[in-house]
Amino acid sequence: SAAAQKYSRDEETAVRGGLLGTKVPQGYCRAKELDAACFKAPLGEIAGPIESEYGYHLLLVTERTNCPKLDGKYNKIIRDADGVSTKFVRGDSQEGSEEIQTVALQQVGFWMGVSLAGGILAEIAAKAANV
């Protein structure tokens, strides 16, 4: 990233150390060659040099969504505990959906309990009022 800050001719990405963006859609990059490479490069491998009208680029894709044919079940690469090696993991998209399902089930259970308790209290109140 230091090299990108020092040598890049693209002022927009140079200040971010060459970072194009995170989870950007296809068609986001101004250079069509670079945009295509983002969706062809293997996850976790450096691709390039890629030549475009903006110069030469090295590309490292660390996370990608909606590309199961290319990435399989893993869509994110992270550093291991040692800080040097890397490992492939399932990204936030799967983990988030599991969390949403858990919260939804908890909410359904809660409201069913409230409805049942409300029905019991209404029946007790009706008996107490001799209705």
Could you describe the 3D structure shown?
There is one protein chain. With 131 residues, this protein is α+β, with helices and mostly antiparallel strands. The protein has helices spanning 2-7, 11-14, 32-38, 68-71, 92-128, and strands at 46-52, 55-60, 76-79, 86-89. It contains five helices and four strands. Strand 3 and strand 4 (86-89) form a beta hairpin. The N and C termini lie far apart (77 Å). The model has no long low-confidence stretch (mean pLDDT 79).
Uncertain segments: none
Percentage of residues in helical conformation: 40-55%
Pattern of helices and strands: HHHEEHEEH
Alpha-beta content class: alpha+beta
Task: Give the overall average pLDDT.
Answer: 79
Number of strands: 4
Task: Give the biggest beta sheet.
Answer: 2 strands, antiparallel
Number of helices: 5
Distance linking N and C termini: 77 Å
Q: How large a portion of the residues is in β-strands, by DSSP E?
A: 15-25%
Overall geometry: elongated
**Strand arrangement, largest sheet?**
1-2
Report the radius of gyration as a whole number of Å: 26 Å
